[in-house]
């Protein structure tokens, strides 16, 4: 009987469970998708480097899944609080009719298990379907062979999803049982008449608090943008986040009192239609949800920053491959340490690569005791070791560099007999070099003075890498390196191949020559590494961002539905005095819209400055294009956040329409 009653209750209260169902299904589906990447059959058709990257990505996502499970667990518990509040009076009636608390608990346990199983099964079905699409996306990233793609069920992801979901739901069952047993019969019967205590705030105090909050927030914004150079420690960055969080809380605290006060001053607006009722409802909602609104705002801010930065990093990693690896292969030997050049090494090991390369060029860099970090940038660098200042700078003949520039599609330089150029592409290092080059300082090589051709460091590099990391080198006239010792040896070339398969074959052959002495960097390696790092970043950003976004929207939705339950009698009174359904629905829409928009608007303002900080922190990997990234983030916000808004409005109308 109790089981049948549970089934009947679920059918009758489906509209109450709609957001709960959607949240659980999305949570399970997302959990499965991001834990099933490695086991998709299409992954077997990618190269070994890509497999290693996917495996590492899966390990990281597994660790993130533990954090995600805690977030979803909190969300499920919070959602159950709403459902419990919705049904307290119903449980009180059961007790009045003679049921014991144990029997009521059994009804609740049956319902919880049924809802959980339905959500788990539907979530897994959705997740299994979408994971196939996700695997195709990853396969395309790594240029995998799609001909042998087959449908695969990830038993590992299935087990994790069931295990974590089961643990979370077991805690929910315990929580619900304890809640029912702690309640007294009278509390359950009159729970629908109880509401949260609302304190009227003094408008003068609210204005003062609001001004303080704005000033504090402006100070934090200034520190992370115009004054970002002063943030020299991790603690100073955390301090700005604390300022921002505190200011956000104070803004919401003061806004509840100010909103009603200022609207009341405009009599024509305040007494128009249901505006007086709507404004009071909104003020009450904000007043009783200051802390939750603050947390939601900060979570939305983190979601926007994490997601936008992840998308921008992924785009940058993929788009800069041709710039970072314009040639097919670059070989390097530290001659100063190994006392051998690349050509000598290949000859000694009987390695002939001439047939594999259509064009190549080998050259050396040099060093001089007269050109060290101390003699050049010594006054610019601070808090560095003496050994660093004594390190020698790299020197390249202009003739050699121009040949490299042709292969790399970089600008070539013509130097007078007494000129030099500094070239590099690591942004942090280039900023320091530019400070030094402002006055075109002189350098001395072989007791001859050389003048800087430019007042800024020029963009360029020698060794191909997966990110701009060349800290700078000096390009000088060819005769300036006479009698200098060799610092390092390079060989740069392009493959003699007409198809992708031939390029892959030559690339595998050449990379096998890599040793402790001979460092080899290839375009295919860099492309795979950048694609892998981009995929890793975008998937982690997606995973955390979507979970945060769902959590924020679900908490807002559930709290709004809880308010709708509390305010049912108010709307019944409005109907009795002649207010039509259209005006009531309009009032509900405005309340929910403002309740959803307030955290989002402030989060967007925070994000304008937060994304600037992200750009500064990540500038070492290249220039981030946040325009497309923010557009992608906006689409997710509209789909998920907007979707929850629509469902909340629909459910609220249904709750208020009940007799």
Q: Could you characterize what this model shows?
A:
Mean pLDDT is 80; it is low at 188-198. The protein has helices spanning 2-12, 14-35, 48-96, 101-141, 155-182, 185-189, 203-224, 234-265, 267-270, 275-287, 290-319, 321-324, 335-338, 342-348, 373-377, 386-389, 398-408, 427-437, 500-511, 523-566, 568-576, 581-617, 626-657; strands spanning 329-333, 357-367, 395-397, 419-424, 442-445, 448-452, 458-459, 473-476, 485-495, 519-522. It contains 23 helices and 10 strands. Helix 3 (48-96) packs parallel to helix 5 and helix 8 (234-265) packs across helix 11 (290-319). Strands 3, 4, 5, 6, 7 and 8 form a 6-stranded mixed beta sheet that branches. Strands 2-9-1-10 form a 4-stranded antiparallel beta sheet, sandwiched between helices. With 659 residues, the chain is of the alpha/beta class.
């Amino acid at each position: 009987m109790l089981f049948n009653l549970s089934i009947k209750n679920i059918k009758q209260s489906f509209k109450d469970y709609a957001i709960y169902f959607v949240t659980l299904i999305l949570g399970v589906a997302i959990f499965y998708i991001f834990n099933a990447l490695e086991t998709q059959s299409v992954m077997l058709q990618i190269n070994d480097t890509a497999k290693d990257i996917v495996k590492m990505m899966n390990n990281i996502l597994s660790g993130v899944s533990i954090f995600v499970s805690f977030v979803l667990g909190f969300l499920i518990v919070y959602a159950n609080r709403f459902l419990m509040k919705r049904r307290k009076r119903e449980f009180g009636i059961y007790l009045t009719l003679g049921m014991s608390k144990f029997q009521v608990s059994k009804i609740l346990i049956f319902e919880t298990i049924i809802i959980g199983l339905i959500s788990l099964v539907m979530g897994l079905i959705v997740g299994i379907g979408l994971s196939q699409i996700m695997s195709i996306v990853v396969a395309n990233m790594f240029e995998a062979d799609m001909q042998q793609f087959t449908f695969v069920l990830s038993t590992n992801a299935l087990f994790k999803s069931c295990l974590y979901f089961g643990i979370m739901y077991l805690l929910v069952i315990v929580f619900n049982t304890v809640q029912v047993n702690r309640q007294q019969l009278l509390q359950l019967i009159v729970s629908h008449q109880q509401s949260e205590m609302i304190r009227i705030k003094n408008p003068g105090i609210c204005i003062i608090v609001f001004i303080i909050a704005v000033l504090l927030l402006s100070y934090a914004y200034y520190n992370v943008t115009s004054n970002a150079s002063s943030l020299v420690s991790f603690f100073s960055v955390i301090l700005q986040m604390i300022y921002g969080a505190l200011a956000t809380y104070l803004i919401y605290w003061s806004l509840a009192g100010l909103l009603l006060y200022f609207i009341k001053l405009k009599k024509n607006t305040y007494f128009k239609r249901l505006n007086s009722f709507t404004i009071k409802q909104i003020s009450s909602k904000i007043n009783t949800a200051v802390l939750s609104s603050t947390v939601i705002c900060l979570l939305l801010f983190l979601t926007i920053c994490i997601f936008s930065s992840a998308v921008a990093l992924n785009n940058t990693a993929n788009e800069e491959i041709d710039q970072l690896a314009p040639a097919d292969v670059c070989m390097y030997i530290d001659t100063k340490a190994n006392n051998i050049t690349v050509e000598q090494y290949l000859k000694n090991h009987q390695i002939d690569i001439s047939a594999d390369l259509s064009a190549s060029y080998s050259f050396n860099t040099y060093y001089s005791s007269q050109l060290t970090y101390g003699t050049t940038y010594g006054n610019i660098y601070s808090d560095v070791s003496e050994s660093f200042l004594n390190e020698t700078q790299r020197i390249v003949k202009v003739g050699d560099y121009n040949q490299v520039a042709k292969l790399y599609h970089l600008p070539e330089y013509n130097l007078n007999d007494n000129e030099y150029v500094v070239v590099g592409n690591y942004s942090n290092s280039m900023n320091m070099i530019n400070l030094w080059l402002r006055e075109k300082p002189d350098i001395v090589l072989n007791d001859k003075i050389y003048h800087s051709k430019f007042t800024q460091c020029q963009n360029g590099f020698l060794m191909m890498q997966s990110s701009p990391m060349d800290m700078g080198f000096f390009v000088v006239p060819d005769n300036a390196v006479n009698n200098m010792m060799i610092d390092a040896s390079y060989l740069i070339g392009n493959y003699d191949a007409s198809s992708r398969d031939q390029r892959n074959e030559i690339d595998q052959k050449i990379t096998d020559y890599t040793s402790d002495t001979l460092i080899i960097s290839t375009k295919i390696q860099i492309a795979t590494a950048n694609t892998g790092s981009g995929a890793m970043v975008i998937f982690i950003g997606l995973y955390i961002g979507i979970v945060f976004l769902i959590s924020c929207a679900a908490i807002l939705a559930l709290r709004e539905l809880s308010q709708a339950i509390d305010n049912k009698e108010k709307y019944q009174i409005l109907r009795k005095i002649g207010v039509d359904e259209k005006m009531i629905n309009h009032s509900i829409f405005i309340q929910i819209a403002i309740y959803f928009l307030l955290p989002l608007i402030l989060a967007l303002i925070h994000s304008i400055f937060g994304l600037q900080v992200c750009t500064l922190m990540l500038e070492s990997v290249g220039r981030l294009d946040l325009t497309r990234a923010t557009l992608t983030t906006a689409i997710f916000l509209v789909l998920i956040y907007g979707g929850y808004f629509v469902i909340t409005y629909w459910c609220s109308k249904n709750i208020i329409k009940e007799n």
